[in-house]
Hints:
Blueprint: H1 9-13, E1 31-34, H2 37-48, E2 51-52, E3 62-67, E4 70-76, E5 94-97, H3 101-110, E6 115-121, E7 126-132, E8 138-144
Parallel strand pairs: 1-4, 5-8
Antiparallel strand pairs: 2-3, 3-4, 6-7, 7-8
Amino acid sequence: MDPWHWPNKESETRGESVDQKKAKLLVVFPQFRVSDVIKTAEWYRDKLGFTIGDYFLDPPVFVHIWRDNVVLQIGLAHNQDAITRQATGLGCNGYFWTDDVNALANELIGRSVILTEGPVDRKYACREIMLHDGNGLTLCFAQRI
């Protein structure tokens, strides 16, 4: 599977015999380590439309948040050195696929999210928007064009 296409039943088994079958990675739940789990989860809910799961412990040290097929883990950094740092240079902390980057941009602007870039068409055939979350982490939302 290349990163531009989701797998389907045909592509999952094409050319594989029983002896060649490997375990498949199904999904990833990236974890952002932050100084305030509740504040971060609520920012993702209020600004990006995520749903907040059950908090673990009191005060909370962990929570899953999700929107559609995307799940993030928000974990408490127990010291300043453990906090997830903002990506530097051309990188980002999270790269998210969407089926309509323009509609998402309009939705987020309506939620008072400040886009740091875009929507912009890239040379690598993606249309993207960039923003910083409530912790300053860089998020990119992209659509293949």
